[in-house]
Amino acid sequence: VLDNLGDLKFEIEQLAEENSGDAEYNRELRPDSPNSVSDYLKFLIDQDRKSTPLKAIQGLIWQAGYEAGEIISPIFDDVPPALKRWKAADKTIAIYSSGSILAQQLLFRYTEHGDLTPFITNFFDTNIGPKREAKSYEDIAAALEIEPGEILFLSDVPAEVDAARSAGLDGALALRNGNSPVSYYLDLKTFTSFDEID
What we know:
The chain folds into two domains: 48 residues, no CATH class; 118 residues, Rossmann fold. It is 40% helix and 9% strand. It has seven helices and five strands; from the N terminus they run ααααβαβαβαββ. Strands 3-4-5 form a three-stranded parallel beta sheet, with helices on one face. The protein has a two-stranded parallel ribbon with strand order 1-2. The mean pLDDT is 93.
């Protein structure tokens, strides 16, 4: 980031705007100061914020690592055959993540199973809206031109599944090894493997 500050003008402007309304960070971000920008980015990471400019900058950092062959995405073994099966059945496959669209594309392009991006029709990030708000899912359904009730949304976060269901989507919880434990999900449909999904 420090070496490419000039190339990140738009993202840094977004960070400065975010910083101006950030009650938890007691310092003003100075866009012309690499240390000030870096300090605020570190704060956002430590707080696990789903900040759109942070995610955009992370995506650019990851791009360098992926393209240099330094990063390979681990993917559950059931994912590639499921993507192939769904694509063959003419299903629309979309990804919605707090990570930037670039980061999502990199993650699926550079996997231990090869490039999986040809199976994915659309990528959505927090530019469409927060993942815990129903309107975001309404907007995704509209962008896909698919009735909400015809969309299965999977997440490992119950609050995101609840938001999708509030928007009329069929939401289900993905219970996978390595995911954070969930405190509630009794009323949610669950999947432990993509092999369970037609």
